[in-house]
């Protein structure tokens, strides 16, 4: 079976309201359509590459192709998991975690997006909390890092709520203009002090070697 060769297909994270896992082809199409419906308002661009401004057909295709690309390139020393986020069985967004040389660095990076119509309900915080539980409790990470543009107040608020500490301000370019981003760092100790969401993980053990996280 395919899952025997690619065990991340069986990985599941569950919180009181959410399930995070890889989507089926039909669910991936729904995610593309969700992105077309809107991720942010017209006065905000939270991404360095403004992919949300693509025409609707290209935008949906971009979501699908990025998912396929990350799966195709997944290997122990460089990987990204684009986990679909489900609330009441309906896809509401994507929570990504990625790492390079995880076996050595024990550090994960994260990105995410949430459909505009699902925002304002605490889902963004809960799905990030699930991802952090996977990173620290499941994979044995030492640190998690994140960045957010200074005008992306919702993202910055989630990081602060979950215990991330500010780790400097960096320069970046968005839509051809200089912009500034807040860098964040979360240690294992800070995560343990701020964790407040119950998370369960299923299907992790067969994935550990593929993610460079084998137990010693």
Automatic annotation (TrEMBL):
GO terms for cellular component: cytoplasm. The keyword Transferase applies. Pfam families: Acetyltransf_3. Residues 18-189 form the N-acetyltransferase domain. Keywords: Transferase. GO terms for molecular function: protein N-terminal-serine acetyltransferase activity; protein-N-terminal-alanine acetyltransferase activity. The keyword Transferase applies. It comes from the Bacteria. InterPro entries: Acyl_CoA_acyltransferase, GNAT_dom, Ribosomal_N-acetyltransferase. Gene3D superfamilies: 3.40.630.30. This is Protein N-acetyltransferase, RimJ/RimL family.
């Amino acid at each position: 079976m395919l899952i025997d060769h690619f065990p991340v297909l069986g990985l599941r994270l569950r919180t009181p309201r959410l399930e995070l896992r890889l989507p089926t082809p039909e669910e991936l199409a729904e995610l593309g359509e969700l992105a077309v419906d809107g991720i942010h308002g017209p006065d905000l661009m939270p991404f360095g590459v403004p992919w949300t401004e693509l025409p609707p057909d290209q935008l949906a295709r971009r979501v699908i192709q990025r998912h396929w690309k990350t799966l195709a390139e997944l290997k122990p020393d460089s990987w990204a998991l684009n986990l679909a986020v489900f609330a009441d069985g309906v896809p509401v967004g994507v929570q990504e975690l990625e790492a390079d040389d995880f076996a050595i660095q024990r550090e994960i990076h994260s990105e995410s997006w949430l459909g505009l119509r699902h925002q304002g309900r605490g889902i963004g915080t809960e799905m990030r909390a699930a991802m952090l539980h996977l990173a620290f409790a499941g994979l044995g990470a030492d640190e998690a890092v994140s960045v957010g543009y200074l005008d992306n107040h919702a993202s910055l608020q989630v990081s602060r709520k979950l215990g991330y500490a500010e780790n400097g301000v960096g320069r970046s370019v968005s839509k051809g203009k200089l912009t500034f981003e807040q860098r964040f760092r979360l240690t294992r100790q800070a995560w343990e002090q701020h964790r407040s969401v119950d998370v369960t993980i299923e299907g992790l053990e067969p994935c550990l070697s593929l993610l460079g996280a084998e137990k010693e």
